[in-house]
From TrEMBL, chain A:
InterPro entries: PGGT1B-like (IPR045089), Prenyltrans (IPR001330), Ptb1 (IPR026873), Terpenoid_cyclase/PrenylTrfase (IPR008930). Binds 1 zinc ion per subunit. Catalyzes the transfer of a geranylgeranyl moiety from geranylgeranyl diphosphate to both cysteines of proteins with the C-terminal sequence -XXCC, -XCXC and -CCXX. Keywords: Metal-binding, Prenyltransferase, Repeat, Transferase, Zinc. Gene3D superfamilies: 1.50.10.20. GO terms for molecular function: metal ion binding; Rab geranylgeranyltransferase activity. This is Geranylgeranyl transferase type-2 subunit beta. Pfam families: Prenyltrans. The keyword Metal-binding applies. Its cofactor is Zn(2+). It comes from the Eukaryota. One of its GO terms (cellular component) is Rab-protein geranylgeranyltransferase complex.
TrEMBL record, chain B:
Essential subunit of both the farnesyltransferase and the geranylgeranyltransferase complex. Contributes to the transfer of a farnesyl or geranylgeranyl moiety from farnesyl or geranylgeranyl diphosphate to a cysteine at the fourth position from the C-terminus of several proteins having the C-terminal sequence Cys-aliphatic-aliphatic-X. It comes from the Eukaryota. Residues 8-17 have a biased composition (Basic and acidic residues). This is Protein farnesyltransferase/geranylgeranyltransferase type-1 subunit alpha. It is an enzyme of class 2 (transferase). Its EC number is 2.5.1.58, 2.5.1.59. Belongs to the protein prenyltransferase subunit alpha family. GO terms for molecular function: CAAX-protein geranylgeranyltransferase activity; protein farnesyltransferase activity. The keyword Transferase applies. Its cofactor is Mg(2+). The lineage of its organism: Eukaryota, Viridiplantae, Streptophyta, Embryophyta, Tracheophyta. Residues 1-29 are annotated as: Disordered. GO terms for cellular component: CAAX-protein geranylgeranyltransferase complex; protein farnesyltransferase complex. It comes from Corchorus capsularis (Jute). The keyword Transferase applies.
Length: 305, 329
C-alpha cells in the first residue's frame, strides 16, 4: 500500500492560495471562505496549521462579515449560511471564537429558519437539508442552539427520510450520501439519532463500497473520494463503521493522491483540488490513519478544537 | 453584448459604459489568497462591482450580470443582483428561462442556476409548467442522474402539477438504463404522490410486476430490489406472502449467477417468518461448491455465510446479520 505524502499535500495547499494565472482560482473567488476551511482544516489534521499567518486569515474573515451577522464567501459578496459556518469553523481551528459577536451570528442563522423547521441558505430562500445541518452545526459550536426551534428542525429532517433509511435534500428527494451526512450529523448534534433506522441506513451506506474499495454516493454511480467523508462519518455516527472494508478504502484514497505535486483528486488519475484533498485527508483521519489528528464526524473539525 | 472571448469588446471601450469607474477587487493589504485574473474577466468583475455598489438596476446592469454569469456562473452575488435588476425592470422572465437553458448546457450542477430557475418559475406560475418540464427533460437527457434537475422537477410537479405523463417518463428512462436509481426514486415519488394514481396500495400489484421484469433483465441492480421492498412499506407480511417476490428470488438463484441481491431478499423474507419449500434450500445449496466448509443446516445462517464470502467487502455486515438471527429452535 502507498503512503500519505504529507509534505507534498501541505505544499500543495499553501501553493493553491498563491498560484498565478489560474482561472480555476479565479472562479473560486466567491467561495474562498469554503476554500479556507478545506485548506486550513487539512493543514490542522496534518499538524501544520502553524504554517499560515493566523492574524492575516482572521482579519480577512472578519472583513467578510455583514451587518446581518452572516459571512460572505469573500470580501464584497453577499452573506450566506454556507460561508457563515466555514468562518466559524476556521475561527474555531484557531481557538478565536471569542472575537465573534455571537448574538449577531445567532440572529442571522436563526432568522433563516422557516415555519416548517427547514432552513434557507440566505434571504432568497433556497431550502435544502444541507442548510439544516449548517445552521445546527454553527449554532452548536457557538452554544446557541436554543435560538432555533430544534424540534421543528428535527421534524423537517425526519420528513426527508426515505424508505431505504437514507435522506434527501427535501422530502421525496433521492437518498444521497452528502445529504445523508447532513441529516445524520444534524440529528447527532441535537441528540435525535433515535430517528435514524441505523441498521437499514447502515446497510445502504456500506453498499456504497465498490470493488476498487472506493465509495460512491448513490447506487450505480462512480466512486469519489469525497464520499470517504460523507459515507464514513455517517457510518461512524450511527456506529456501523465495521460494515465496510476499511483497508480497501484507505488504499483507494491513497491511490487518489498526486504524489508528485501534492493534492488529492476525486478518483485515481484525475486532477486534484483542495476540496478533495480535504475530504481524502479527513476520511483517512476517520479511518485512524497514523500521524493524523482525529476529526469529529459531526462537526467536521479536529476533535481537539 | 457578446461574451465570446474571440469578439468581446472591452467594457472600457464601450460608449455606454463611459460614465462608470470600475472598482477593482479589494483583497486587503495582505491578501490571504491572492489570485491572478484573466484580463477580460477582471474587467467584467470590476465593472460589476461598480454597478453593484451603486445599486444601479438598469438594462445595462442586466447585460453586465449576464456577462459576469457566463464568465463565472458560480458567483452567487451576481445572481442575487441579477434578481434585483430583473424585478426592478419587470423583465420578461420567459427570456430569462432561455438564458438559463443556455447556461445549463455547461453548468447543469450549479446550485445558483437552479435556485434562480426556481425563482423565475415561481413568478411565472402554472403557465410555465409544460415548457419547464420539457426543458428539464432536455437537461436530464444529458445527465440522467443530475440531482439538482430531479429535485427541481419534483418541486415543479408539486407546485404546479403536470403529473399525468410522469410515470411514462420514468419508464422511458428505465428502458434506456434500468440501473438509473434517480428514475426509480422518481417512480416511487410518482406512485405515492400523484393525484391521478390511486396511491401506493392501489399501484402495488402492477408495480411489483414491473419491478420483477426489471430484476429478471438485470438481477445485479440495487435499485429495483430496494424499490420492491419499498412497495411493501409497513406491510412486511404482504411482502413475505407475495408469490411474485419469493419466485423471483428462486428464479435468479437458479441461474447461479448475479444472485447476490436475490440471496439478500430471501434472507430478509426468512427473517420475517417466510417458510421456504425444499426448492429454496436446493437452490442455495447449489450456489456453494466447497466440501471443506459445508453450509449450515439453518437456511438463513447458510445464506449469511455465503454472502460473507461472495460479498466480502461487506463481510462485517454479513457476520453481524448472522449474529442477529434467532437461534434455531
Amino acid at each position: 500500500m502507498g503512503e500519505l505524502a504529507v509534505g507534498k499535500h501541505v505544499k500543495y495547499i499553501l501553493s493553491v492560495e498563491k498560484r498565478k494565472d489560474s482561472f480555476v482560482s479565479v472562479v473560486m473567488d466567491h467561495i474562498r471562505m469554503n476554500g479556507a476551511y478545506w485548506g486550513l482544516t487539512t493543514l490542522d489534521l496534518l499538524g501544520k496549521l502553524n504554517t499560515v499567518d493566523e492574524d492575516e486569515v482572521i482579519s480577512w474573515i472578519m472583513e467578510c462579515q455583514h451587518e446581518s451577522g452572516g459571512f460572505a464567501g469573500n470580501i464584497g459578496h453577499d452573506p450566506h449560511i454556507l460561508y457563515t459556518l466555514s468562518a466559524v469553523q476556521v475561527l474555531a481551528l484557531f481557538n478565536k471564537l471569542d472575537i465573534l459577536d455571537v448574538d449577531q451570528i445567532a440572529t442571522y442563522v436563526s432568522g433563516l429558519q422557516n415555519e416548517d423547521g427547514s432552513f434557507s441558505g440566505d434571504m432568497w430562500g433556497e431550502v435544502d437539508t444541507r442548510f439544516s445541518y449548517i445552521a445546527i452545526c454553527c449554532l452548536s459550536i457557538l452554544r446557541r442552539l436554543d435560538e432555533i426551534n430544534v424540534e421543528k428542525a428535527v421534524n423537517y429532517i425526519v420528513s426527508c427520510k426515505n424508505l431505504d433509511g437514507g435522506f434527501g435534500c427535501t422530502p421525496g428527494g433521492e437518498s444521497h450520501a452528502g445529504q445523508i451526512f447532513c441529516c445524520v450529523a444534524a440529528l447527532a448534534i441535537t441528540g435525535s439519532l433515535h430517528h435514524v433506522d441505523k441498521d437499514r441506513l447502515g446497510w445502504w451506506l456500506c453498499e456504497r463500497q465498490i470493488k476498487s474499495g472506493g465509495l460512491n454516493g448513490r447506487p450505480e454511480k462512480l466512486p469519489d473520494v469525497c464520499y470517504s467523508w460523507w459515507v464514513l462519518s455517517s457510518l461512524i455516527m450511527i456506529d456501523r463503521v465495521r460494515w465496510i472494508d476499511k483497508e480497501q478504502l484507505v488504499k483507494f484514497i491513497l491511490d487518489c493522491q498526486d504524489v508528485e505535486n501534492g493534492g488529492i483528486s476525486d478518483r485515481p488519475e484525475d486532477a486534484v483540488d483542495v476540496f478533495h484533498t480535504y475530504f481524502g485527508v479527513a476520511g483517512l483521519s476517520l479511518l485512524e490513519y497514523p500521524g493524523l489528528k482525529a476529526i469529529d464526524p459531526a462537526y467536521a473539525v479536529p476533535v481537539d478544537v | 453584448m457578446d461574451s465570446d472571448e474571440g469578439d468581446r469588446e472591452p467594457l472600457s471601450r464601450r460608449a455606454e459604459w463611459s460614465d462608470v469607474i470600475p472598482l477593482p477587487q479589494d483583497d486587503g493589504p495582505n491578501p490571504v489568497v491572492p489570485i491572478a485574473y484573466k484580463e477580460d474577466f477582471r474587467e467584467t468583475m470590476d465593472y460589476f462591482r461598480a454597478i453593484y455598489q451603486a445599486d444601479e438596476r438598469s438594462p445595462r446592469a442586466l447585460c453586465l450580470t449576464r456577462e459576469a454569469i457566463l464568465a463565472n456562473p458560480g458567483n452567487y452575488t451576481v445572481w442575487h443582483f441579477r434578481r434585483l435588476v430583473l424585478q426592478a425592470l419587470n423583465a420578461d422572465l420567459y427570456e430569462e428561462l432561455d438564458f438559463l437553458q443556455q447556461i445549463a448546457n455547461s453548468n447543469a450542477k450549479n446550485y445558483q442556476l437552479w435556485h434562480h430557475r426556481r425563482w423565475v418559475i415561481e413568478r411565472l406560475g402554472a403557465d410555465a409548467r409544460a415548457k419547464e418540464l420539457e426543458l428539464n427533460k432536455e437537461i436530464l437527457s444529458r445527465d440522467t442522474k443530475n440531482y439538482h434537475a430531479w429535485s427541481h422537477r419534483r418541486w415543479v410537479l408539486q407546485a404546479l402539477g403536470g403529473w399525468e405523463d410522469e410515470l411514462d417518463y420514468c419508464h422511458c428512462l428505465l428502458e434506456q438504463d434500468v440501473f438509473n436509481n434517480s428514475a426509480w426514486n422518481q417512480r416511487y415519488f410518482v406512485i405515492t404522490r400523484s393525484p391521478f394514481l390511486g396511491g401506493l396500495k392501489a399501484m402495488r400489484e402492477s408495480e411489483v410486476r414491473y419491478t420483477v421484469k426489471a430484476i429478471l433483465a438485470q438481477p445485479i441492480n440495487e435499485s429495483p430490489w430496494r424499490y420492491l421492498r419499498g412497495l411493501y412499506k409497513d406491510d412486511i407480511e404482504a411482502l413475505v406472502n407475495d408469490p411474485q417476490v419469493f419466485s423471483v428470488c428462486l428464479k435468479v438463484m437458479n441461474t447461479k449467477s448475479n444472485y447476490i441481491f436475490a440471496l439478500i431478499m430471501l434472507l430478509d423474507l426468512l427473517c420475517n417468518d417466510f417458510q421456504p419449500s425444499q426448492e429454496f434450500r436446493d437452490a442455495v445449496d447449489a450456489l456453494w461448491t466447497s466440501d471443506t466448509h459445508p453450509l449450515d443446516s439453518d437456511l438463513a445462517k447458510a445464506i449469511c455465510y455465503i454472502l460473507e464470502h461472495v460479498d466480502s467487502l461487506r463481510a462485517g455486515y454479513w457476520m453481524w446479520r448472522k449474529s442477529k438471527l434467532p437461534q434455531a429452535a
